[in-house]
Design the sequence.
């Protein structure tokens, strides 16, 4: 499996979401973009939620820490955490080299459609270009 | 209410263009646009510990004192004796207020130019330079023969730090600077241009701090990098400078030191000569020395992997707040979080299982002797 960043949707706060339909339910795999990881540099700690936790679009679900700073992780969608990548906090170097496949953080069962303000890849790239 | 808004543009160091060309991430620091990192803080930290790293520290304030009585003038302001500082000597010292609170921590040097004139040099923190100039200026009135010159803008300051710094760069200077002892300095030259070479630093590693004319900065910087090319010398930013000095347990003004913290509380009694001297703050410091400081600077090893940050509360076994983290972060060398904190002396003596309130999580923390790191 190899996830194509061009086919993901993005929060302005740099989380990506890969939304798939499964029967009547929608599931989103969530991670952080290569651009965000490049900006953070030197990741040293990650704090993740537990399975069953409710998350809300635009609200914090965890934290990632670099040498100098603590950065909140914001959920791009509403729903319930159904899976957590527990191995990730011990393998932050691998998150850095493979943010879209190995680097997935949580899976969320959506309770509502993804918010309309999530960005497609070209719009997200444009935002990064303006910020960088 | 009047508000002071500092909207003046950022100052730049003589190496600013080099930083931009090297792709540094720049940020404002003490009124200067400074490089925070180039390739990455951890990588730069490791270069300094294993080879040598170059730091642009031109933002530090450089004040020169000429004239008879310079040593007497400084002696009544500094916690360390200046009157017996030999030519070529460098001392780490504090400038205190009357209450013993630290206005700044400084390096004072006694230097002699090739033509034989002698002067004292004070290197002060960038963030305190204006304050120290304002503190010293009225006191100069009693010393009419002493002139103070702010040399900061006319010069650049470069630190070269690491286990290979001395061996690789010493040959670039005319004087035999590899024979210079720690906390000694000399004025010599590099390719016929004057340079102050001081065997001092702020990383825990051996190395030099150089002061050159602003227009010579880039040439000297590039010479140093070239000299250490096969050893992997690299530029390091303020990010690595901070993680290096934290491992070496060196205080940073605004964190371990402030006008509310005296040198004895900060564990810097070695930088205070109280015997038979009077200087601003000496009476207060004598009183503190007699009764023992109520708080003390300690090293803490927080359990687990989560870094603790400045401002986190230190709590004792009963949940009482007994101190505050003054600097904290991950230690690249130790591969674990480390922190310095100011803690009630009684809580340190009791050591009943300290914890750090890490944004709501109670993280156990073990007291450890400072520094966290010493070179092999």
Sequence:
């Amino acid at each position: 499996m190899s996830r194509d960043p061009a086919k993901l949707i993005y929060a302005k706060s740099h989380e990506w979401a890969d939304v798939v339909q499964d029967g009547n339910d929608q599931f989103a795999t969530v991670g952080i973009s290569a651009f965000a990881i490049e900006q953070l540099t030197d990741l040293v700690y990650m704090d993740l939620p537990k399975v069953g936790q409710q998350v809300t679009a635009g609200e914090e679900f965890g934290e990632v820490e670099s040498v100098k700073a603590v950065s909140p992780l914001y959920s791009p969608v509403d729903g319930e955490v159904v899976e957590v990548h527990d191995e990730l906090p011990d393998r932050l170097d691998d998150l850095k080299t493979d943010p879209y496949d190995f680097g997935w953080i949580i899976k969320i069962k959506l309770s509502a459609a993804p918010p309309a303000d999530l960005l497609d890849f070209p719009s997200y790239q444009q935002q990064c270009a303006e910020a960088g | 209410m009047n508000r002071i808004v500092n909207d003046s543009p950022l100052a730049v160091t003589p190496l600013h263009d080099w930083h931009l060309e090297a792709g540094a991430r720049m940020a404002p620091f003490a009124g200067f646009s400074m490089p925070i990192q180039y390739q990455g803080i951890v990588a730069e930290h490791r270069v300094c510990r294993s080879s040598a790293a170059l730091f642009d520290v031109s933002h530090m304030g450089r004040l020169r004192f000429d004239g008879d009585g310079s040593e007497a003038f400084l002696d009544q302001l500094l916690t360390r004796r200046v009157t017996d500082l030999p030519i070529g000597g460098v001392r780490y010292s504090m400038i205190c207020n009357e209450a013993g609170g630290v206005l700044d921590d400084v390096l004072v040097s006694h230097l002699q130019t090739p033509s034989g004139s002698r002067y004292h040099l004070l290197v002060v923190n960038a963030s305190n330079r204006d304050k120290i100039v304002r503190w010293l200026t009225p006191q100069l009135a009693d010393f009419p023969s002493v002139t103070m010159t702010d040399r900061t803008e006319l010069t650049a300051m470069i630190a070269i730090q690491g286990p290979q710094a001395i061996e690789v760069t010493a040959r670039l200077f005319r004087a035999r600077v590899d024979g210079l002892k720690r906390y000694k300095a000399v004025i010599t030259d590099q390719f016929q241009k004057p340079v102050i070479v001081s065997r001092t630093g702020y990383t825990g590693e051996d190395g030099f701090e150089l002061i050159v004319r602003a227009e010579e900065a880039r040439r000297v910087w590039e010479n140093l990098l070239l000299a250490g090319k096969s050893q992997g010398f690299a530029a390091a930013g303020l990010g690595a400078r901070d993680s290096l000095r934290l491992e070496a347990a060196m205080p940073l003004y605004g964190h371990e030191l402030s006008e509310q913290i005296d040198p004895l509380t900060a564990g810097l009694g070695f930088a205070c000569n109280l015997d038979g001297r009077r200087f601003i703050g000496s009476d207060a410091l004598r009183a503190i020395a007699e009764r023992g400081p109520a708080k003390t600077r300690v090293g803490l090893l927080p359990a687990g992997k989560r870094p603790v940050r400045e401002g986190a509360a230190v709590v004792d076994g009963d949940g009482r707040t007994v101190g505050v983290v003054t600097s904290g972060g991950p230690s690249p060398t130790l591969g674990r979080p480390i922190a310095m904190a100011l803690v009630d002396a009684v809580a340190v003596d009791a050591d009943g299982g300290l914890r750090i309130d890490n944004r709501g999580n109670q993280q156990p923390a073990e007291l450890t002797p400072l520094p966290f790191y010493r070179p092999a």
Remarks:
- Chain B has a mean pLDDT of 95.
- DSSP finds nine helices and 19 strands in chain B.
- Chain B has three domains: 16-58+153-247, 61-148, 294-368.
- Chain B touches chain A through 16 residues (CB under 8 Å).
